[in-house]
Amino acid sequence: MKIIQITFCLLAFIATFVSATINILFPSSKYYLVAGQTNEIMWTSEITDTLPFSIFLINANISDLKQFAVANNVDPRLGKKDVEIGANMNYTGFQLIFTDIGNINSIYATSETFEIKEAGTTPTAYSTPTPTPSPTSSSAPSVTPKSSSNSIHNYGFSVLTLAALFAITLF
What we know:
Elements: H1 2-17, E1 22-26, E2 33-34, E3 37-45, E4 53-58, E5 68-74, E6 80-85, E7 91-100, E8 103-110, E9 114-117, H2 155-170
Parallel strand pairs: 2-9
Antiparallel strand pairs: 1-3, 3-6, 4-5, 4-7, 7-8, 7-9
């Protein structure tokens, strides 16, 4: 019995290093895609993210669009991927989901809701956020919390699992 518990503990430990923490930057509520052309998808990911994923386009407002695959076997370390959007896809309420390549129900990240504009619309360009200059007064510096992704595989979840399994092993 102890061997099984130790095995689970080791698997949880390994999961902390292969966990996916992905934040989709583009598109978003601020940045749209354009139908009928190639669009660039952008994201950030933790340095330990090495497992490839699939990218699906979803929209709850379009009944016959379940999950539309736009890319497969994407390396998370790339940070961007060019995808082709069909000419008749202009509508609002779209989202992208990044999933496990073998299981669409295992979602690593979900984008903000965005719009796909009609073909011929000028694409939006992503602008990197610039830090806000801090005041020169003697006031205390402000702390900006780190944003988290919409991931079910966050680092904290893996650490919690590891701690729980380790506690079970000890008792």
